[in-house]
Amino acid sequence: MDKYIGFDIDCKKTVCCVVENGKNDIYQTIGSDVVAMREFLMSQKQAGYKVHLVFEVSGQAGFIYDSLVDSADTLTVANPSKMTWIYRTSKKNDRIDARKMAVLLSIGEVPSVYMPSKEVRQWRETILHRKKIVSKIVQIKNRIRSTLKSQGYSKPFEKGVWWKKVNFLWMRDICHCGIGECALWCMHLSNLLDEFDLLQSQLKRVSDYLDGYLANNRGGNLLMSIPGVGPRTAEAVLAYTDDVTRFGNYKDYCSYFGMTPKLDESGCCRRLGHISKHGPSVVRCVICESSWVAIRKSQGLRAFYERVMCGQDGRKKIAIVAVGRKMLSIMRAMLMTGELFNEELVNEMVKQAA
Question: Can you give the three-state secondary structure of 138-168, one letter per residue?
Answer without folding.
Answer: HHHHHHHHHHHHHCCCCCCCCCCCCCCHHHH
